Amino acid sequence: MTDAMVETYHRHHLDALVCIGGGGTHKNAYRLMQKGLNIITIPKSIDNDLAKTDNTLGFDTALGIATDAIDRLHSTAHSHHRIILVELMGYNAGWLGLGAGIAGGADVILISEIPYDAAIVAEAITERSRGGKRFSIVAVSEGAMTVEDAATHQDLLKAKQEAKAKSENYTEDPRLAEFMTYQAGKTIRLSQQLEKLTGLESRVTILGYVQRGGTPSAMDRLLATELGSHTAMLLAQGESGVMVARKGQKIVPVPLKEVVAKRRTVPLDHLWLETARRVNTCLGD
Fold first, then answer.
1. Both 151 and 169 in a single domain?
2. How many domains does the chain have?
3. To 10 degrees, the CA torsion angle through 97, 102, 108, 109?
4. Does 222 lie in the same domain as 151?
5. Positions marked active-site
6. Is 70 exceeded by the pLDDT of residue 1?
7. What are the CA-CA distances from residue 103 to residues 25, 100, 108, 250, 272 (Å)?
């Protein structure tokens, strides 16, 4: 596909190519840049996980949709005295689950950066019940794992890296694929565990791709205009090989090679995590 795009680029006598997307888009854009194409990228991902930028296009909109969903689930959780688990997108980074969980008033937030213990989650919910609060909302990032599963995942990834380093003809380890398939059902398993441990009915809502659609928020529209207009300016100046990033109150070009194959995850000392703990939100640890 890369070669076909290069051929198309030259056949149409293009001056530059603007690529808009997430991690995969940036990897392909970098390959095209290495083949001599003038490339500028714009970060777009609801996961907000691209390196070297404070915000990605789509994150604010998805955050609003996820928060609204948690708000709506409060009514059912409260009226039926249930535990409601809502699974949110964000496999490798917990920005969406953490942000929506805090904004939506979730009682438990589980993200990929902090492996959780189901017993600790159950105790937090039971404590709420003892205090007269007969329901709980649990926001679960799709990449959240138990302490045991997180350790297994790291072992499998390490084995994969070592095998790839030893052989140019590396074939995918079926154990990793099996593990990822197993992880797909983790929120349902957690729901069943919490029912047994707390004695409360538990239900699961998986938002899925509904988080990726809808009308863009005002903040995303502003960000798109900022990034797009700055991209046009850079193109006019003959700039290429960069991603246009939001840094504080500035839009800056970042060398594409500094972005590729890197991921922006939630730092364990981030203000959002500190805030969640201050308002007594359980993070599973």
1. yes
2. 2
3. 30
4. no
5. 47
6. no
7. 30, 5, 12, 26, 10
According to DSSP, residue 12 is labeled T
- CA pair distance 218, 280, nearest whole angstrom: 31
pLDDT, mean of residues 196-207:
91
- The CA-atom distances, in angstroms, between 48 and each of 43, 96, 263 are 9, 8, 9
Per-residue tokens: 255: 């060398």
Count other Cβ atoms within 10 Å, centred on residue 121: 28
Do 155 and 174 fall within a single domain? yes
Contact 272, 70 (CB under 8 A): no
Query: What does the alpha-carbon distance between residue 235 and residue 190 come to, in Å, rounded to a whole number?
Result: 50
Average pLDDT of the chain is 91
**CATH number, domain with residue 274:** 3.40.50.460
- Domain assignment present for residue 283? The answer is no
